[in-house]
Amino acid sequence: GIDVRTSRGTIRSARVVHAAGHDIDRLFPQVAEEAAVRRCRLQMLEVAPPGDVEIGPAVLTGLSMLRYGGFAETAAATGVRNELAATAPELLDVVMNLMLTQRPGSGGRPGSIVLGDTHHYDRTHLPFDDEHVAELVLREGARLLGAPLSVRRRWRGVYADSPRTDFLDTEPFPGLRVVSVTSGIGMTTALGLAPTVLDQLF
Ligand SMILES: Cc1cc2nc3c(=O)[nH]c(=O)nc-3n(C[C@H](O)[C@H](O)[C@H](O)COP(=O)(O)OP(=O)(O)OC[C@H]3O[C@@H](n4cnc5c(N)ncnc54)[C@H](O)[C@@H]3O)c2cc1C
Question: Which of the listed residues 17, 153, 181 should we mutate to test ligand 1's pocket, taking the one with most ligand atoms within 8 A of CB?
Fold first, then answer.
């Protein structure tokens, strides 16, 4: 068995899965270093729905095509990237993925719109967010929705990123599995990744 030492005592277990997200760089620095893990900081905004608009689906844009492997490999993505490089290179500089979803409303009022995002990569991030980045997100969001936007809340997100793999999944010693999603697709893929890891354990 393996002893897992926690702040509330030691737990002994035959198998252990360590799934601490980006904190892998603090808790398993060697594993993180081998996979060249860095932290990705994201800036997102929650804005009021202009004109009380109601939007059913998630909305992605051409900038999203450059972010996701399935799209990014298509010939069309090169055309999109070239056009953006010529017309709005500042969006590529902040690695913008212009997309939005609307949160559930309440009391008959439509919900806030979560609008994002931008990506900034480093081992350690400063505590400050850049206002010019938020202004770019607002500018592009307003262009997309055809109306000026007012910010309700600002969201800084962090996730692990590796230039080598989207999924860090390793067994540093028998019985211990270290698993972190090292890309921005962990919400979508979690319900496949978790059962796969558990099926392999049992
Ligand atoms: C702003 C933002 C937008 C995103 N948008 C999308 C999207 O549209 N689609 C998509 O698929 N993915 C998206 N993601 C990425 C997705 O959230 C991550 O890929 C995913 O959460 C990574 O999963 P994980 O289980 O590896 O880590 P996490 O989800 O970070 O889970 C790790 C957990 O471990 C806990 N933990 C850490 N250290 C310890 C410790 N010492 N002891 C106990 N617990 C600990 C943490 O509290 C946390 O709950 C987004 C992420 C952000 C930040």
Answer: 181
